[in-house]
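New to this. Look over this protein:
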Amino acid sequence: MACDGYYTVLIIPLQSSLYSPDALHCFHWLKKRRDLERQKDVLWAGLQVVDQTQLWYHNRLQLNLQRQVSFSTEDLDGEGRWSCAMRSCMQRVNGSLGSLMSDSCVWNNLAPEESGGSDWDLRWKNATLVKEVKRQNQQISTLELEKTQLLQQLVSYSTPD
């Protein structure tokens, strides 16, 4: 999603071969510019969502304060289930935002071009693989626990009473 703005088209005539160091440098420079433009677009879109979310939270907070002022027992019947579902949804959103803000991979590597590009890619892949290994280890542990429980059930059924 592009923000309201414009893009610059840049044509650079190369006086040597396409495979020259100057051409390669120009290509990498353009690639970094494109990545920065994409990052800017994503950040603007995120900022718009955060602004709308902040307004929504503020309105919900005002509504909540109004309900606290005009508190009565009959208000609880109609909105008990809705507020529980809404609270659960808001807690998931808050948790997602909190994990985004605390994710060291995101904050330590905001600008991959500053950290050497390929090194950043390797670190990102490593972090992703570590998460995947952790998930698979948890799944293995769960399966081993289920196996142990099934073996115990089998032993209890096979022993004569």
